[in-house]
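Notebook, student rotation project (T.W.).
Task set for the rotation: take a protein with a known small-molecule partner, predict the structure of the complex, and write up what can be learned from the model alone. Partner molecule chosen: flavin-adenine dinucleotide. Sequence and SMILES entered below by T.W., checked by me.
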Amino acid sequence: MAAELETLRALIDAFRPPSCPVSVDAAARRAHEFLAAFRASGSPRAGILDTSLSLLGLLALAGTDGGRESVRRRLTVMDSSLPPLRDLARLAQRLATVVLYATLDQTGRPAAAQAIGYDVFADRPRGAAPVVPAEPRLPADVVVGPAEPVPGDVYDVVVVGSGAAGSVLAARLAGQGRTVALVESGDYVPERYDAGAPERPRPHDELDNLLRYYKDAGLQITDGDCRMSVLQGQCVGGGSVVNNAVCFRMPEQVRSIWAREFGAAWAVDGRLDAAYDRIARDLRIAPVTTAVPDGWINPSARHLASGARALGRADALRPCEVNIEACLGCGYCNLACAYLRKRTVLQTLLPAAASTGRLRIFAGRRAREIVIRSTAYRAEGVIAEPTRGGGERRVIRGRRVAVAAGAVGSSALLGRTTALNPLALPIGERFSFNFVSPVHAEYETPVRAFDGLQMGHYYLEDLPRDGFVIETWCSPPATQSLSLPGWMDELHENMQRYAYYASASPLVGSTSGSKVDTRHTPERIWIRLDGRDLDRLKHGLERTCELFFASSPPPRRVLIGARKGWSLAPATYRRAIDAIASFDDVQISTAHPQGGNALDPAERGVVRPDFRVRDTRDLYVVDASVFPTSLGVNPQWTIMAVADLAAAHVGGD
Ligand SMILES: Cc1cc2nc3c(=O)[nH]c(=O)nc-3n(C[C@H](O)[C@H](O)[C@H](O)COP(=O)(O)OP(=O)(O)OC[C@H]3O[C@@H](n4cnc5c(N)ncnc54)[C@H](O)[C@@H]3O)c2cc1C
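Predicted structure of the complex:
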């Protein structure tokens, strides 16, 4: 452990600008604590991170004099090499930079972030004494913690995963009179901040909240065509708790493809729209302009709107619909809504389901595999174990099992269930995702894009032709540092202008050639993208730049890129974007994985149109993993509506 601390110290020293108010020692200690908590979380990726850090110790430090300059030189050589050396160098930069901007001082504030113009919400006038509504807590007897005994009950349905889909399904089943066991690998972490309760995370503590609410503390990375971060929630409520709450219906052209090619008649015959309406009532989905008092919607939108007006396309920039009420505009949506303005499933569907007396939530327990009776492939429950390790495996029995562990997690669970092997199902195939690539427009005067709802507007001209939507956003500084281009000093210089950026991203629905490879532990997400994906992204980047450059007053420059940043001007951006040759040149990430267990009436699908796993009995999949193609828009509303429709099949006689 002493060696790890030394490695962290040297790496942080290499990336830390001398003017940074956070000391190397303080940041290294914070990184060390973060890593210890990450290991204790039971993430199967902890071992990979440990190996990477040991390699960094050997490759970046050994043979140097350990001084700042020699470590910087060594890391820069590694960064100019091929993977895996380059990947290690970038990991070092990400870790060091995030920790520097996220380390809190004795007053509980991120000093490095404040030095670049950020203020935490509690220090803004409307954050000083916010009124926080009462929290609809889940009764203690509904949530069974990982250390508590598992009762021997047989439930009507065991639902694996309590995210957007699993919570809707559990609520609908409980409403139908079914008993439900909801098994969730994450903990039950009530969202409301309570200064008197030290176990509650501080709303602005980026590292702590990553650990509490995210799968692999946000460190899930892909292999294959690009190294991309895949963000997913891991807590009771799943992605619903940490998402931006923007809601889209399925685009028309996606509906017709699903109906025509994948047997999803419900996408076009009115059933899906009826389900959207039911979810909208549960979550009180409304236009952001009514959900958020004026002025607290992400300030980036003002600049994009100005550009859209100048180009005569004002109608194409629209307010999103959101499941938020009376938003305070703290900008912490992705860290869970400590002020309870986001109407997550934890605030709405789960308490309602709990009040029926028919719901039990087994939190902090990972479903290892599904219990399948060998004759007729009938599902009879799941084998679950404490996610953090240390406890016994227990069978949670059910007459039916519905898998809603999210794209990635559901494929992993089905893949681990060796009893299904003889069926040769294409588990993990046809994986797709919506990906984003950040564009930052730097203005002369501060934009303070962090001071408002994280995401509020979208720009959409012609989805069938363009294949992207553009969304405005901003993140708190540590997370935002991951989206800015540059290596070492260049990145920190770019971060100095944090408060001056308006940010937006084209969001592109990928093709479906990727795969979750379930033969490994942890499962590997293998990305395959093609020319269409790159073309759509380039088109989206170009349009985003065009909008920003048309805004009045115009930005000083627009930044895109990855390690190498492009500082773009009106005369250069088209040529620069045209020269993007591969996904290595830009930074992409996803928080919208889809597919892996595609719905399909034909042999090539895992799940039939009634959501039952092909050739099995009493085994269903109901989450984003059943999507046969990506949506190309934010998916939570569709995921919930599809789970609502699936409830009739899962709960049917
Ligand atoms: C940062 C972020 C921002 C986003 N913003 C938006 C947005 O604004 N609008 C939008 O539409 N979408 C958004 N999304 C995406 C949206 O939240 C997800 O698409 C949605 O939550 C997926 O629903 P799901 O039920 O398929 O999976 P999830 O919500 O991911 O739920 C799956 C659950 O299963 C659990 N699990 C996994 N494996 C196991 C196992 N073996 N045993 C037990 N439990 C298991 C996980 O811990 C998780 O809680 C965002 C996502 C993120 C991460």
